[in-house]
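Re: the request from the purification team.
They wanted to know what the chain is likely to look like in 3D before they choose a buffer screen. I agreed to run a prediction and write the result into the notebook, where they can find it.
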Amino acid sequence: MRTLIFIAAGFALAACTAPGGGTMTTASLAAADAATSLAVGESVSEELSTQSPVVEGADPVVSLALRHADGRRLSFQQGNHTNDDLFVQQPGGALAQIMGLPGEESPELYHSVSGEGNEGAFFCGPAGPAAIGRYQAADGTILIVGLRQPIQVETRPDGQPEAVPYSPDQVCARLRFRRG
C-alpha cells in the first residue's frame, strides 16, 4: 500500500513539472536610470517562459531568467501556486507596497530557483535575491525589486491572512528598465 502511495505521489509530482507545451520570449532590457546602469550595466536579457499545465485547472509554470551581458544568469519561478504568494500580489498588496507602486497596482512575485547558476549573481550580492517583484507599467517601463528574503504571511486570529511587516533593509535592489 505504501509503495502505491509513493508511486501515485511521483506521478502527481511529474504531472506538475512535466512539459506540457508552452511559450518562450526573450527581450533586451535597457537600464532606464543611472542607478540601474551602475548596478547591472547598460542592459540585461530577460527570458520569460510559460509552460502549460499538464493537469487541467492547474496553474502554468512561469519561469523568468535575467542574463547579464557577461553571461551570468539569475533564474526565478513565478509565485502563482500558493495562497500566500497570491495574497501578497493582490492589487495594492504587500508586494506593491514594498515596491512603492501607487494605487491599486499588482506586481508579480518570482522566487529564486536554487541550483540554476545563481552563484554569480549580478545584483543583491553574490548569492542574488531570494525573490523579486516585477512590474510592467503602462508606458513599458519595467521595475524589478530584489528581496533578500521572501515575504512572510501570518494568519490573524479572525482567520484572515496578513503580511508580516517587511523591513526596507531587506530590499536589496530597485531596478528600472525599458525594452530596448
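For the purification team: The chain has four helices and ten strands.
Please add any questions underneath this entry.
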